[in-house]
Specification:
This protein is α/β, with parallel strands linked by helices. It contains 11 helices and 9 strands. It folds into 2 domains: 166 residues, Rossmann fold (3-Layer(aba) Sandwich); 74 residues, Arc Repressor Mutant, subunit A, CATH 1.10.10. The strands form 2 sheets. Strands 3-2-1-4-5-6-7 form a 7-stranded mixed beta sheet, with helices on both faces. Helix 9 crosses helix 11 and helix 10 packs across helix 11. The longest helix is centred in the middle third of the chain and has 18 residues. It is globular.
């Protein structure tokens, strides 16, 4: 895949909020800008990189501006007083369509986001403009629709980047009734390993995302199994405060129930 596309003129659009919080919230990890850029350079001839985020109002990502400037000066501040994440997506989409109109010489578009909001533009670029569309997304954040709209996919983990192009248009699932115990064990082990962490809180969302991504089981299957565990009070939900003061509905195992 890299060899086929390495000579293509390429523009890159990075949703830095998706990258930063995908790693921070799910893995308690930081973005590896240098490692990602090394991987990116194998994908094509990079004309431009645009990085988007609400850097003005968001102190956590604002501190990363300096390291992002080692990659590009095109850092777009998506300041939004209403703090709606969709606003950043809208600005990215607008810039993508502007690029399509103004520069037909671009052969490949790379988007760093797992958000399904980008599936329509990805499908448009690939199917109607004959462009190659690459996707980078943090593990557990990539929507199935966006995955299936892309030409290739790379999944970002704290330990590196994994080529998952072979999974485009595929979704491996299991028989829920037959293998429900298997899913229950995956979820219980995940919560048991993470509930003792002083800096990471397992929640419904990150448990579903990570257990699904790490074990190649659909999110719906994991979510339905987790709901049953909560209904049976094997897994408990309670409000917890993160080390940075944010309140989350965290998951923990019921120590009064034999598992």
């Amino acid at each position: 895949m890299s060899d086929q596309n390495s000579a293509l003129r390429t523009v890159v659009f990075v949703d830095y909020e998706s990258w930063f919080y995908g790693l921070h919230n799910q893995f308690n990890a930081e973005t590896d800008v240098t490692g990602w850029f090394k991987n990116l350079k194998t994908k094509g001839l990079i004309d431009d990189i645009y990085i988007f985020g609400d850097f003005e109002n968001n102190k956590m990502i604002a501190q990363d501006r300096l390291k992002l400037r080692t990659l590009t000066s095109n850092i777009i501040d998506c300041a939004n007083l209403e703090s709606k994440k969709d606003y950043t997506d809208f600005i990215i989409l607008d810039r993508i369509y502007q690029t399509v109109i103004r520069n037909d010489l671009i052969q490949q578009y790379i988007i760093f986001s797992g958000d399904g909001h980008f599936s329509n533009v990805a499908a448009f670029l690939k199917n109607f403009k004959d462009k190659v569309v690459g996707i980078y997304a943090v593990a557990g954040t990539l929507s199935t629709q966006l995955r299936n709209s892309a030409s290739w996919v790379e999944i970002v983990y704290p330990t590196g980047i994994k080529d998952e192009t072979s999974q485009v248009n595929k979704q491996i699932d299991i028989n829920v009734e037959k293998d429900e115990n298997y899913c229950r064990d995956l979820i219980i082990n995940y919560i048991r390993e993470n509930e003792v962490s002083p800096t990471f809180i397992p929640t419904f969302t990150n448990t579903v995302a990570n257990v699904s991504a790490n074990n190649n089981v659909s999110k719906d299957t994991i979510a339905n199994t987790l709901k049953k565990l909560i209904e049976e009070e094997i897994v408990l939900q309670r409000l917890q405060k993160t080390y940075c003061g944010k309140i989350l509905k965290g998951l923990s195992l019921n120590k009064h129930v034999s598992i």
